[in-house]
C-alpha cells in the first residue's frame, strides 16, 4: 500500500505505507505456443496472473513462499 499525491496531473509516490511480501514479475514468452503451459505452471506454483493484452507477456504476482520455486522454474 502506498501513499501518493497528484503533482502536475501525475501521481507521485509519497511513501510506502505497508510493504508487501509479494513480488511482481513480468515474463516474456517468445514462443507463443508455450504460453499456455508457462501460465499453467506458474499458477501451479502459487502465482496469480493478470492479463496484459500483449501476446506472450505475462504479469504475475509471486507470494514470498513461492519465490524460490518460481525462480527455479523461470531459469
Structure commentary:
The structure is a single chain. The protein has helices at 35-44, 67-74, and strands at residues 2-7, 10-16, 23-28, 48-50, 57-62. It is flat and about 45 Å long. It has a three-stranded antiparallel sheet, with helices on one face. A two-stranded antiparallel sheet has the order 1-2. With 75 residues, the chain is α+β, with helices and mostly antiparallel strands. The model has no long low-confidence stretch (mean pLDDT 95). 24% of the residues lie in helices and 37% in strands. It is built from two helices and five strands; from the N terminus they run βββαββα.
Task: Sum this structure up briefly.
The protein has helices at 35-44, 67-74; strands at residues 2-7, 10-16, 23-28, 48-50, 57-62.
User: If strands are numbered along the chain, what order do they take across the biggest sheet?
Assistant: 3-5-4
Largest sheet: 3 strands, antiparallel
The whole-angstrom Rg is 15 Å
How is the quaternary structure best described?
Answer: single chain
Report the average pLDDT across residues: 95
Based on CA inertia axes, which overall geometry fits? flat
> Helical content, roughly?
10-25%
Q: How far is the first residue's CA from the last residue's CA?
A: 30 Å
Low-confidence stretches: none
Q: Counting H and I runs of at least 4 residues, what is the number of helices?
A: 2
Structural class: alpha+beta
Number of beta strands: 5
Report the sheet-strand fraction. 35-45%
| N-to-C series of helices and strands | EEEHEEH
